[in-house]
Amino acid sequence: MIYDVTDLDVYNRALKALNLVYRLEKQIPNSHYRLAIQLTSAAEGIPAHIAEGFAKRRSIKEWRRYLDIAMGSSDETITQARAINVLSDHFVKIDKNLCNQVTSEYKIISKQLNKLKNNWVDYYKKI
């Protein structure tokens, strides 16, 4: 049974994945500060949107809207990680493997969000 947002695997995974994002963010040169801010803002928004939507889950439409926003933030995180990966050819201190880890982790998060969004109606009818 899901009683709290912390009972959602995707929420916990998104929080844990922030560690990867912060590690990657530290490697981005100051000359690309905006990219670092966009990366962390998008990633930080995911668990926040899940939590806000969960609080409004009595309205399935509203809950799904917040999950859509979280998916958008996840996809944005993937795009930022890919852009940083491209930059890694120009800056030695960026770890390509870490960029790929971030991309892979957020692909999983996006899939989990999509699955939660599509299956919530069925789950909600049971409670």
Automatic annotation (TrEMBL):
InterPro entries: 23S_rRNA-intervening_sequence, 23S_rRNA_IVS_sf. It comes from the Bacteria. Pfam families: 23S_rRNA_IVP. NCBIfam families: four helix bundle protein. This is Four helix bundle protein. It comes from Candidatus Curtissbacteria bacterium RIFCSPLOWO2_01_FULL_38_11b. The lineage of its organism: Bacteria, Candidatus Curtissiibacteriota.
